[in-house]
Amino acid sequence: MRAVGLHEDVIAVTSRAFATASVLVRSGGEAFLIDSPVFPDELEILPAIAAQAEFNVVGVLATHADWDHLLGRYSFPEAPLGAAETTAARLINEPGAAQRKLRDFDEEMYVTRPSPLSLPGAQKLDTPGFIDIGEKTIELQPADGHTADGMAIWVPWAAVLIPGDYLSPVEIPMISEGGSVSAYIATLNRLEPLVEAAEHVVPGHGGPIDAQRALAILREDRAYLEGLPGSALPLARRTKAQREIHAKNLTRL
């Protein structure tokens, strides 16, 4: 796991699993954890990282309901979970889905966890909308298309965008069950002005990147989606895993 300070109030954490990103955001005496690392040792050490940097975590936010973004309460079990209304609905409508996916991952990777994943009802957040943290306010934007649910998070005073599973330097756009190409493109269009205003972007997978690179990825991803089914994969994302994602995308057109 790697932790990098992007701003005095923002720490980006990248897991060893899928380069999954999580972000600590602070204002005043309060902090949020957005998304989560994956492995138990990463989740165990995260409170110490937060405490050493004086990030008092009072809430956990999830950009969407995929299992690898829902593990934050292993680190902060007393913190309430907040998510977009669409994500809260997905958690209700798919009971046990995240737990089953986590169990499959753990069995494949020989991972033992201290307890089963507990997902109490998420506090529903409006998207578009705002949420206060300390003395400041975070902006929330809807971010569906990858899945049927999701939100992107804009931290204006730090100029950091946390878009969820969009703008990844290591993954092509992935249209999962419930997602759609049209909704994904609409989300990219919605994110574009925020990317242009950002100093850093922290996509769900791949680690933090600067805004110039994120904008280039956004344009590549939009061209890829608009060109389906005949699109070529972006040059830097043509691995076997990305070809498999592309094949699955073609089944969802």
Task: Explain what you see.
The chain has 253 residues and is an alpha/beta fold. The protein has one domain: Metallo-beta-lactamase, Chain A. Helix content is 33%, strand content 25%. The chain has seven helices and 13 strands. Strands 1-2-3-4-5-6-7 form a seven-stranded mixed beta sheet. Strand 10 and strand 11 form a beta hairpin. The protein is globular and about 50 Å long. The termini are far apart.
Task: Give the structure's gist in a few sentences.
With 253 residues, the protein is α/β, with parallel strands linked by helices. The chain has a single domain, classed as Ribonuclease Z/Hydroxyacylglutathione hydrolase-like (Metallo-beta-lactamase, Chain A, 4-Layer Sandwich).
Let me know the average pLDDT: 97
Order of helices and strands: EEEEHEHEHHEEEEEHEEHH
Computed structural class: alpha/beta
Strand-residue proportion: 25-35%
| Strand order, largest beta sheet | 1-2-3-4-5-6-7
CATH architecture group name = 4-Layer Sandwich
The fold-level CATH name is Metallo-beta-lactamase, Chain A
Q: What is the rounded Rg?
A: 17 Å
State the distance separating the first and last CA atoms: 36 Å
Number of helices: 7
CATH level-four homologous superfamily name: Ribonuclease Z/Hydroxyacylglutathione hydrolase-like
The CATH first-level class comes to Alpha Beta
Number of domains in the coordinates? 1
Give the overall silhouette: globular
Largest sheet: 7 strands, mixed
Task: Provide the helix percentage.
Answer: 25-40%
Task: Report the count of strand segments.
Answer: 13
Low-confidence stretches: none
Protein name: MBL fold metallo-hydrolase
Organism: Solirubrobacter phytolaccae
Pfam family, one: Lactamase_B
Domain Metallo-beta-lactamase: 19-205
